[in-house]
């Protein structure tokens, strides 16, 4: 049996979840990782529409403004690692916003992104494979706001 115990705090289960949990988890002082889950099928459509209006959007902006901004100092002081899928369909914009926030606060923060779920650039190739909607059997719609694979 392993000697190391890792404590994981579930900060959110969807975009729009209560903002209380991460604050409570940090106050408990007993977590090593703080996990934010923002994405669902409807969320991806909302993010796609937002990015169509403004190319700098397409991620959960409140992850930066309502979560990381007020919590970043404690996260760094307590050496808590944050894992979030808040990047949605615009990981680089989320990365830049978080990096800017950390720089403005003078906080040393290691930030990483995991890419590879965006299938929109391959839509023509995938249409050629006659992919169908699994519940109805319908072909892919002509216009798509997003097309993503679930990773992990």
Task: Give a written overview of the molecule.
The protein has helices at residues 20-28, 41-53, 61-77, 91-105, 123-128, and strands spanning 8-12, 33-36, 81-84. It contains five helices and three strands, in the order E-H-E-H-H-E-H-H. It has one domain (8-117). With 152 residues, it is mainly alpha-helical. A three-stranded parallel β-sheet has the order 1-2-3, with helices on one face. The model has no long low-confidence stretch (mean pLDDT 91).
String of helices and strands: EHEHHEHH
Poorly predicted runs are none
Query: What's the domain count?
Result: 1
Proportion of residues in helical segments? 25-40%
Largest sheet: 3 strands, parallel
Average residue pLDDT: 91
How much of the sequence lies in strands comes to: 5-15%
Q: What gross morphology would you assign?
A: globular
Rg calculated over all Cα atoms: 18 Å
Helical run tally: 5
Number of E strands: 3
**How are the strands of the biggest sheet laid out side by side?**
1-2-3
Distance between the termini: 25 Å
Structural class: mainly alpha
Topology at a glance:
Blueprint: E1 8-12, H1 20-28, E2 33-36, H2 41-53, H3 61-77, E3 81-84, H4 91-105, H5 123-128
Parallel strand pairs: 1-2, 2-3
Helix pairs in contact: 3-4
Task: Give a quick summary of the entry.
The protein has helices at residues 20-28, 41-53, 61-77, 91-105, 123-128, and strands at residues 8-12, 33-36, 81-84. The chain is mainly α and 152 residues long.
């Amino acid at each position: 049996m392993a000697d190391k115990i890792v404590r994981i705090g579930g900060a959110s289960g969807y975009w729009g979840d209560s903002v209380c949990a991460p604050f409570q988890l940090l106050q408990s002082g007993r977590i090593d990782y703080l996990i934010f889950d923002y994405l669902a099928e409807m969320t991806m459509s909302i993010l796609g529409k937002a990015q169509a209006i403004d190319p700098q959007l397409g991620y959960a902006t409140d992850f930066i403004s309502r979560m990381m901004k007020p919590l970043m100092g404690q996260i760094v002081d307590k050496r808590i690692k944050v894992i979030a899928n808040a990047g949605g369909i615009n990981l680089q914009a989320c990365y830049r916003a978080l990096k800017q926030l950390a720089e403005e606060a003078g906080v040393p923060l290691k930030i990483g992104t995991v890419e590879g779920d965006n299938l929109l650039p391959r839509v023509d190739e995938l249409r050629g494979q006659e992919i169908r909607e699994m519940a109805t059997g319908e072909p892919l719609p002509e216009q798509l706001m997003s097309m993503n694979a679930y990773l992990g």
